[in-house]
Design a protein that fits this description.
The structure is a homodimer.
Chain A (H helix, E strand, L loop, with lengths): L13 E5 L2 E6 L18 E5 L1 E6 L15 H16 L2 H17 L2 E8 L2 H11 L2 E8 L13 H12 L6 E7 L7 H13 L4 E5 L3 H11 L3 H7 L7 E5 L5 H9 L3 E4 L1 H6 L7 H6 L3 E4 L12 H16 L7 H15 L17 E5 L11 H8 L5 E6 L2 E5 L2 E2 L4 H19 L4
Parallel strand pairs in A: 4-5, 5-6, 6-7, 7-8, 8-9, 9-10, 10-11
Antiparallel strand pairs in A: 1-2, 3-12, 12-13, 13-14, 14-15
Helix pairs in contact in A: 2-3, 2-14, 4-5, 11-12, 11-13, 12-13
């Protein structure tokens, strides 16, 4: 499955990798293997481009399952915000994010778009895991983890970009504005100016709840999309996350400005926020990637589950089983994801001279048998647990379901001990 | 996790099994192990009752991914029905069902409720796999696989019950009426009389689509539930499947008559049929189990994914994150499932003298770390792939992710060859 536009699945294919790039994709009467260091056989398996998680807060693995099934405001103000203030620090962010990286790798994600605080510790974790990412420093006009003085939030973000922009070929720094409700017009405008100066993408949560839309309309007299447009924020480097409550004019405006969309169906379902009109967005030509959101509201980082939810939720919402077919959804998690992060010239498909970000999915199991249509199988039958091997930037980071460059036992132990401390301090879980 | 009402998770627990029954569940200062044949350690794992799949057509694994994302009528009349007529026979039903059994075992299901044609071959497969099940012969007033003359459908079903009722302690035969649209009033009444004579549950698809409800109202002047009530079908041994389009009076009527419900969220999502009001049903006291439906409309038999979908779909449909919390959903897939099949005195919880149907879920992975709340972890973070060991009726059928009593390679090979033949005859998959 190269995911190259117009190209179907290639049976008996061979992918040659040289350094960090794909050298050749061939099939048919395959010539003898050239001399090579490593051969991975993918019989009874599907080879496809690494998935792109278009929206995640990776350190929030720390809070996985800590407080679920609560009213939205109770969850946020009585659980998540206080826990973030108390327990998020460079150490927990590093280990939480590294655990998130391992979880993403083991479920076939090779690139992710992150937004959180202590972002430099996320970069360190991402680098250690060997992953590709856009890692953004959070900006919010309230005291936040690592940024106790909100008036300094943009200085922190700006220094973060300067410090990390040349750190690694695989990792881009960025800015993540929490939302147009929690960031002032002035903060949004400045965040955009800083991002623009570095030619980097800017992320923002947008129109996730009805209440948020009403609040912005009350404050500005404008629907959220047009409010951002009035600030000059809408362009091809803006990544708008969730975007559930849009009217027709807003969809058209986003499409015209080529704003990128990150769709997080499982999180929006679990929080009861609503259902984004993805089929409508695609129809209008918008680029829509798929994100898991953070582990506090999902509670996993498995893009296979998220693809399944993306397809099925669209169908039931529209009462139309033809909406978002499996091939389209797989495209969203690969090709569109690459576009969201602005790397579609480098990743998202398997073709010569692209970066070697490749995953191999085991199909030799009852739930992947028989095989009529690999798109259907990947979207509707597979889970992240079916991923057998992962290559990022030409490097094998996961082989036969074992991590090759990180000691996963150490990472789980660290996160368990952080979680255990939180658990003891917060009391019973039921 | 015993799932015993009012009992929370028990840390450091020990479950002793003798023969096919649980002998003792203990915790605390654990005394030395009694002399025993086999010890399975479950460190870094959760022990819980085997899951109950409340609705499946197991042989349909044969058609997994064969035809997806199509308009409902095209899918049914141009793909599924013709393929069933052409390719379903005792051989394909046996191997398809056996593959389904392996898939269910590997994802933690120990008991299932099946309804299809050639049901005796499903019984043979179930028996070979060592699973517990209610296996029902399909009844429909049209020519069907193995029942070319519809006027004989009830004779076939009746002989099936007689032949298999005493075959095995683990397997109950039953009747499955396709729907009140495809079975006449007379067929429904007689099917009920036959089931009742054997004191066996009767299954029926009910109110799955708006069109079906309209058709029954037009035909009978009654809403579907009241139509069944007028035929005398509503009682505690009726399993109503899907039940998406119900009004308030129908919910109350079903609750009053203690009709059992099988909720299949992923299938209803993928087919775009609609969203059953599960939270409302539970509020009214209905017993609601969770089913995967067949692989042609899901496309897997993983109840972990189905639990996740059950919780999240209810929340987003009701715009309320407190609906169907994780513990309730796990209850649906265990305790309520056992009630649906009428075996709640025997299975569904882990307690002394119940049948030993037990699964062990691995938690020593990034996506199951850290652990605050095992209910949340099982429903929102786990997939079927996390199941490590499965015991049914005291017998280990799956150990360290390996099947112990069935040669899974042989089964996959058989189903692949059936699938390959269908694939070649039907043409390209895209």
């Amino acid at each position: 499955m190269t995911m190259v536009d117009g190209q179907g699945p290639i049976p008996d294919a061979r992918v040659l990798i040289s350094g960090n790039r794909i050298q050749e994709v061939s099939t048919g009467n395959i010539s003898p293997l050239p001399e090579t260091d490593t051969v991975i056989y993918a019989n009874d398996a599907i080879v496809l481009p690494g998935l792109v998680n278009a929206h995640v807060h990776s350190p929030m693995t720390i809070f996985r399952g800590m407080s679920d099934d609560l009213p939205l405001k109770t969850w946020l103000f009585d659980h998540i915000f206080p826990a973030e203030a108390k327990y998020m620090n460079p150490d927990s962010v590093f280990w939480g994010s590294l655990l998130g990286c391992l979880e993403m790798i083991a479920s076939g994600t090779t690139t992710f778009v992150d937004g959180y605080f202590f972002a430099e510790d996320i970069i360190k974790a991402t680098d250690k895991a060997g992953m590709r990412a856009l890692v953004a420093q959070g900006v919010i006009d309230f005291p936040a983890p690592g940024v106790p003085e909100p008036e300094k939030n943009l200085d922190v973000a700006s220094s973060f970009l300067e410090r990390w922009i040349n750190f690694s070929d695989l990792i881009m720094p960025g800015i993540f504005c929490h939302s147009p409700v929690t960031c002032s017009a002035n903060t949004l405008r400045k965040a955009y100016e800083i991002s623009d100066r570095f030619s980097l993408p800017l992320q923002i949560h947008l129109s996730e709840t009805k209440e948020e839309v009403a609040e912005i309309e009350k404050m500005t007299g404008l629907r959220p999309v047009f409010f951002l447009d009035s600030l000059g924020l809408l362009n091809s480097k803006l990544i708008a996350v969730h975007v559930i409550y849009l009217n027709e004019d807003e969809i058209e405006c986003l499409a015209k400005k080529d704003v990128k969309i990150a769709h997080c169906p499982e999180s929006s379902m679990k929080l009861g926020s609503g259902i984004a009109e993805v089929a409508r967005m695609l129809e209008k030509g918008l680029v829509v990637g798929i994100g898991t959101d953070g582990c506090a509201s999902n509670n996993n980082l498995d893009l296979f589950g998220e693809m399944d939810a993306t397809a099925k939720l669209a169908k039931v919402a529209g009462r139309d089983p033809t909406l978002l077919n499996a091939a389209k959804v797989l495209n969203m998690a690969t090709v569109a994801g690459a576009k969201v992060i602005g790397l579609d010239n480098e990743i998202g498909t398997i073709e010569a001279w692209k970066k070697a970000d490749i995953i191999i999915v085991d199909t030799n199991t009852p739930h992947m048998t028989p095989m009529y249509n690999p798109y259907s199988q990947l979207v509707y039958s597979a889970t992240g647990g079916d991923v057998r091997d992962v290559i990022i930037d030409g490097k094998i980071v996961y082989r036969d379901r074992q991590f090759t460059i990180v000691d996963s036992d150490e990472v789980m132990e660290k996160v368990n001990s952080i979680g255990w401390r939180i658990f003891k301090e917060r009391g019973n879980y039921i």
